[in-house]
Design the sequence.
């Protein structure tokens, strides 16, 4: 009886009741520096060919200036810039946003995200790159399954803290 | 007199073969990968012993050409020449790749006049009128050399990178503003628009003052005129290739020296 119930339950859970999603916890560490600026952060999905498959988020200074808001410094996110940033016309709805303060940020990206909607299921790498004005730069990678269940994490050592990822089908 | 000396030193620097302790001519942009609204780069132009330090003479920029991403020419701004370097700015109004280059295309003549050696340098057109007919012990050679660098605003493109088909030129297979430490880059050398096989290329990373060896990378172009280089680390690199041939346009000149220099920025991974 009990066994049957479990089977019935797990059968229910396997149904596509939820849309595919990636849950991300990203820590921007407190840094003891004389001049602190919030980091620029890019979060994207890379295929096995290292090409950018989906841009999930790009945080940069949005304040209007005659230099083009903070877009002048976007190439400092070097790998993101190379992989996709330089061909992207920012701002992008649902992708670009303002910089965020020190602390833990819980982020959720579902298959309703403009860049994820058309991404085929499979193995990918999530890449988080952070670059800070008068500071450093750090890049972390976490392999994961899109439209599949996976867990992963990466520990930053300078511009990023702990980044954890959980994906669901 | 001083000016003449400088001029002579420059001519020497640009015409010396690779094997000699040549001075290095270069154009160094403040950065090569840019974005934003009309970003600017400032460029240092100098001839020096060390890379990239100003310790010899400024590079003459009379024949400076800046090719915009759409192939048009733009003017340098705020140009100034000091004791050791020439400086100018470039406003990158278009998105894409700019080529900044100095072309030195001249004839060098030497002959005896009143028992003293006389030197002359000028264009092939001026040669006919300025060098006396029947000059004694006349020795003539032609020289064509390029000093180039590349900067990209936003997404790179290839329009400005098209070779002119004159002299020794670099044709990038890997985009010159897409170079990363640990990656392999491929380039092709051309002479007068045709692939140049067997050309020696020397590549030296900047900051030579802070190390004890040049650590130069030496490569030779293959049958297709191509060579590859895997960048050992990030930095500004100086690339030089020189050669000689007999394709002169002045009948009196028996040989032609061809040279090419590029400054390339390699970014960290």
Sequence:
């Amino acid at each position: 009886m009990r066994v049957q119930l479990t089977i019935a339950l797990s059968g229910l859970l396997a149904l596509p009741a939820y849309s595919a999603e990636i849950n991300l916890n990203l820590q921007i560490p407190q840094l003891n520096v004389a001049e602190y600026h919030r980091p620029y952060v890019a979060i994207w999905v890379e295929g096995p060919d290292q090409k950018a498959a989906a841009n999930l988020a790009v945080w940069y200074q949005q304040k209007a200036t005659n230099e083009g808001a903070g877009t002048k410094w976007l190439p400092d996110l070097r790998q993101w810039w190379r992989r996709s940033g330089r061909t992207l016309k920012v701002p992008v709805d649902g992708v670009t946003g303002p910089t965020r303060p020190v602390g833990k940020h819980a982020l959720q990206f579902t298959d309703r995200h403009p860049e994820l909607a058309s991404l085929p299921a499979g193995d990918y790498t999530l890449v988080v790159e952070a670059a800070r004005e008068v500071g450093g730069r750090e890049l972390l990678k976490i392999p994961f399954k899109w439209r599949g269940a996976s867990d992963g994490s990466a520990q930053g050592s300078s511009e990023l803290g702990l980044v954890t990822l959980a994906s669901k089908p | 007199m001083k000016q003449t000396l400088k001029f002579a030193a420059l001519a020497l620097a640009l015409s010396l073969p690779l094997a000699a302790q040549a001075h290095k001519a270069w154009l160094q942009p403040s950065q090569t990968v840019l974005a934003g609204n009309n970003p600017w780069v400032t460029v240092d132009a100098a001839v020096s012993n060390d890379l990239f330090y100003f310790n010899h003479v400024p590079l003459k920029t009379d024949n400076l050409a800046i090719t915009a991403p759409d192939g048009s020419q733009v003017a340098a701004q705020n140009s100034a020449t000091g004791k050791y370097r020439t400086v100018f700015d470039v406003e990158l109004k278009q998105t894409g790749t700019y080529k900044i280059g100095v072309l030195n295309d001249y004839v060098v003549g030497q002959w005896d006049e009143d028992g003293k050696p006389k030197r002359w340098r000028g264009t092939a057109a001026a040669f006919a009128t300025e060098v006396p007919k029947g000059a004694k012990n006349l020795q003539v050679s032609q020289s064509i050399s390029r000093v180039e660098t590349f900067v990209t605003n936003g997404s790179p493109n290839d329009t400005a990178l098209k070779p002119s088909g004159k002299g020794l030129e670099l044709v990038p297979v890997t985009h010159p503003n897409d170079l990363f430490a640990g990656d392999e880059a491929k380039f092709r050398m051309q002479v007068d628009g045709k692939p140049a096989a067997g050309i020696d290329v020397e590549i030296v990373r900047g900051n030579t003052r802070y190390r004890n060896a040049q650590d130069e990378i030496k490569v030779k172009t293959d049958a297709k005129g191509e060579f590859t280089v895997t960048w050992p680390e990030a930095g500004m690199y100086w690339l030089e290739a020189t050669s000689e041939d007999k394709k002169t346009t002045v009948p009196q000149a028996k040989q032609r020296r061809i040279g090419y220099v590029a400054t390339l920025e390699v970014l960290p991974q």
In short: Confidence is low (pLDDT under 50) at residues 8-20 of chain B. The interface with chain A takes residues 33-37, 39, 152, 154-156, 178, 180, 267-269 of chain B (CB under 8 Å).
